Amino acid sequence: MAAGERSRATLNAVARQANVSRQTVSNVINFPERVSEETRLRVLAAIEDLGYRPHRAARQLRTSRSQVIGLRVWPPGDGLSGVVLDHFLHSLTASAEQHDHHVMLFTAADDEAEMAAYADLTATVGVDAFVLTHTHHDDQRIRWLAEHRLPFATFGRPWGSQVSYPWVDVDGAAGTRLATEHLLRRGHQVIGFVGWPPGSGVGEDRRAGWLSTLDSAGIGHRPEAAVFDGAEGGRVAAARLLDGDHPPTAFVCASDSLAVGVVTELRERGRHPGADASVIGFDDTPAAGVLGLSSIAQPIAEVAAECVRHLRAVLDGETPTPLSSLLPPRLVLRQT
């Protein structure tokens, strides 16, 4: 089809090509659950063939929505930890655009500033909903949004919040359980854990998988070190564990950043990661692939798609089913 014909594509043209009514085309675009799978695919094929794009301004007038989802962006971390959120942002934007929603980014110095931004963006831009990341214990942002009846979903669990709301997370305990079980099968009996200081819900979740697996296997020696994230923190933690009474022959780490530090310390001591000691990180960042680091991969694209699904249900006045989604990670084995 010529470019001029594609630019003139209308909802009526789509309906004619798919041999359905205008209302059916509208349902496929706005409420796909109302039509059969066969009809939905036929209409989508016509939309793709004709190059039809729904008129966003008209939809805004009809629904009184801006079609905008707000998301706070965080400062870059150590070069590795921020990769997961970069991937999430890209996947969230792509998933939202599939349903003619767009992501608006904003910054905030802390949670108080983030809540102030919610109020401002709702009043000035008419943002429809928000997605939160970095959820934590006693998260005031969740309480604020719930009290103001603003639609939202989180990438991260409630961590003790009494508010019922849509959330999506990755099962960190299942991830470290996969890692620890693999190391036990390889014959390791002293498996150390390098994690974060107490207070991190994510860190405690990842530690729990390692600990419960060793408990089930009857392993008594369970050396661990809690440090702040980063390659230097991982190096310090590895040195502490290797100089202890029961030096590990394998390490399960709460992040790839920590794992990189462990690998660095092993090499400085003349030990070969993977041969003399095994190391498994978490997040499966691009750096892990380059360095040959085994790691736990999070299904970030699926997390983003679930967040959008939750928000679309809430915006349609429905309760997402299920209300929460805990997705399984997978173990990616490499040289270490």
Structure description:
The chain has 336 residues and is of the alpha/beta class. The protein folds into 3 domains: 3-54, Orthogonal Bundle (434 Repressor (Amino-terminal Domain)), CATH 1.10.260; 68-169 and 300-326, 3-Layer(aba) Sandwich (Rossmann fold); 172-297, Rossmann fold, CATH 3.40.50. The protein is built from 14 helices and 12 strands. The chain has helices spanning 3-7, 11-18, 22-30, 37-50, 56-63, 81-97, 111-124, 140-147, 172-185, 201-217, 231-242, 256-268, 286-291, 300-315, and strands at 68-72, 102-106, 129-132, 152-155, 167-170, 191-195, 224-226, 250-253, 278-282, 294-297, 324-327, 330-332. A 6-stranded parallel β-sheet has the order 2-1-3-4-5-11, with helices on both faces. Strand 6, helix 10 (201-217) and strand 7 (224-226) form a beta-alpha-beta unit. The longest helix is centred in the N-terminal third of the chain and has 17 residues, at 81-97. The protein starts with a helix and ends with a strand. The model is unreliable at 1-7 (pLDDT under 50).
